[in-house]
Write a structure and sequence with these properties.
The protein is α+β, with helices and mostly antiparallel strands and 473 residues long. The protein has helices at 46-60, 104-114, 117-124, 133-143, 145-148, 157-166, 173-176, 191-194, 233-241, 293-303, 307-316, 354-373, 398-408, 420-434, 438-445, 461-472, and strands spanning 3-9, 13-20, 26-33, 43-44, 72-77, 83-85, 95-96, 153-155, 170-172, 182-183, 188-189, 209-211, 218-220, 225-227, 231-232, 248-252, 256-259, 274-277, 283-289, 325-327, 344-346, 388-391, 412-415, 450-453.
Length: 473
């Protein structure tokens, strides 16, 4: 029986899934936590990722050698993080993560240096914000010049972990497209953009090779385990869903994302839509918000209730929460780009109820994400008619499920697969080992199957979204 392994090295933990190559059936799992981080400075030591990977593999019964060696493995990991290493491969400092906002001023400086947002959108499909790797590199040069002078390579989290398996420096087009120096439309590095960080550095030798979607990065252990290219977490989740053009994904975790697969690259000069590549050879326009389930967690704490109790409160209140509107930019926001923002609560009256506050929190999070997701239709018009998937921790919430369907006015599917990033990495591993297509594996594994939630009868999502837009403007 051939087995493949998919790894999700997320901000919070490393998750490993062992799946049957032919059917996708889960054979074993493992999990180990990562150190907790808190913006504005959000950093982790790459060595902690490796320790968690080894522990999770041990729990899942996975080994690089012998009878426990899988046929193939792939790593999906958090996007944008910067692993700065010396020429000998040693890591110079903790990796700055996607949700580290210390480089907000560096993003502004880089945007201005190239001539504005339009120039960036045309150059690499995205307008840099603090999340992007290029802004963190600029921050490193400005704040830690001695370390910057010792740079021998700049890698993303999945690049570094894959390199630990293979001994090679590689990446894939999906994760590379989130750096700010690789162009999805052109399919190559834009060294002129890195020159805006420092025009005296020869950047080409510092960057990993960009592999194609079905290439092999190398082998692990005794050479019997194929290592696939790996990718970023959102790209891996798309693989785990078997995402097709026309589908849209709303992901509600600590942060929120909305994305879809497109046959054409995007270049949004407003910076709302990040023009990423996907892991199959297509493109993945994506919108990201920094505030999602952390907002409802905070409101639950204020109300002194559990998550299920908050769900019940929210669903007991009428749509629109009696005029109460929560703009959920609690810890700054990426979409819209307001890194210094805080949350606001408007429409409060003396007869305000716990139910209204709970409802306003859920509606605020979903409205904020949908407002960004509306921009995806400019680059992939078919998403107005395709499937809508709700994923992430928030997809377990009855309130988030129903309110998302009501605000969209469309059915929402909650996939049966729990760990979509690990599943998507396993899909990539299966493709790299077997030579099958992504569609072949998607059909064999029944990817995208799930439970559908219909909008409530008479739901007027447009009115709720309009009230939110007025409060957020």
């Amino acid at each position: 029986m051939s087995l493949v392994v998919g790894v999700d090295s997320s901000t919070s933990a490393c998750k490993v899934e062992v799946r049957h190559l032919d059917t996708g059936r889960i054979v074993a799992t493992g999990r180990a936590p990562h150190p907790t981080t808190t913006p504005p400075r959000s950093e982790q030591a790459p060595s902690a990722w490796w320790s968690a990977f080894e522990h999770a593999c041990h729990t899942a019964g996975v080994s690089a050698d012998g009878p426990k060696a899988p046929a193939a493995i792939a790593i999906g990991a958090q996007q944008h993080g910067m692993v700065a290493s010396a020429h000998d491969g040693s890591v110079l400092r903790p990796a700055k993560l996607w949700n580290d906002t210390e480089s907000a001023s560096d993003a502004d400086a880089l945007v201005a240096a190239l001539g504005g947002p339009q120039a960036w959108a045309e150059a690499c499909g995205s307008v840099p914000v603090a999340a992007f790797t290029i802004t963190k590199l600029h921050w490193l040069r400005r704040n830690e010049p001695d370390l910057f002078a010792r740079l021998g390579s700049v890698l993303l989290p999945h690049d570094w972990l894959t390199g630990q398996l293979t001994g090679r420096r590689t990446t894939d087009r999906g994760d590379a497209s989130g750096t700010g120096w690789w162009s999805p439309a052109e399919g190559h590095y834009r060294l002129d953009l890195l020159a805006l960080v420092d025009d005296t550095v020869d950047w080409a030798p510092l960057l990993p090779e960009v592999l194609g979607p079905r290439e092999q990065a190398g082998s692990w252990g005794d050479g019997t385990t194929v290592v696939a290219p790996g990718t970023g977490d959102n790209m891996a989740a798309a693989l785990g869903l078997g995402l097709r053009p026309g589908d849209m994904v709303l992901s509600l975790g600590t942060s929120g994302t909305a994305f879809c697969v497109s046959a054409q690259p995007s270049a949004d000069p407003t910076g709302t839509v990040a023009g990423f590549a996907d892991a199959t050879g297509h493109f993945l326009p994506l919108v990201c918000t920094l505030n999602a389930t952390k907002v409802t967690d905070a409101v639950a704490r204020l109300l002194g209730v559990s998550a299920p109790e908050l769900d019940a409160l929210a669903l007991a209140a009428p749509a629109g929460a009696g005029g109460l509107v929560l703009v959920p930019h609690l810890d700054g926001e990426r979409t819209p780009n307001r890194p210094e923002a805080t949350g606001t609560l408007t429409g409060m009256r003396s007869d305000v109820t716990r139910e209204q506050l709970a409802r306003a929190a859920v509606e605020g999070v979903v409205c904020n994400l949908i407002a960004g997701a509306d921009e995806l239709a400019r680059w992939s018009p078919g998403i107005r008619d395709g499937r809508v998937f709700l994923i992430g921790g928030g997809a377990h919430s009855a309130a988030y499920r129903q309110i998302a369907a009501d605000l969209l006015g469309r059915p929402v599917t909650i996939p049966h697969t729990e760990e979509l990033v690990a599943c998507g990495a396993a899909v990539q591993a299966a493709v790299a080992f077997s030579g099958a297509t992504f569609d072949d594996i998607g059909a064999a594994w029944n990817l995208g199957a799930g439970t559908t939630v219909e909008p409530s009868q008479g739901a007027d999502g447009a009115a709720v979204r309009a009230a939110y837009a007025a409060a957020a403007s």
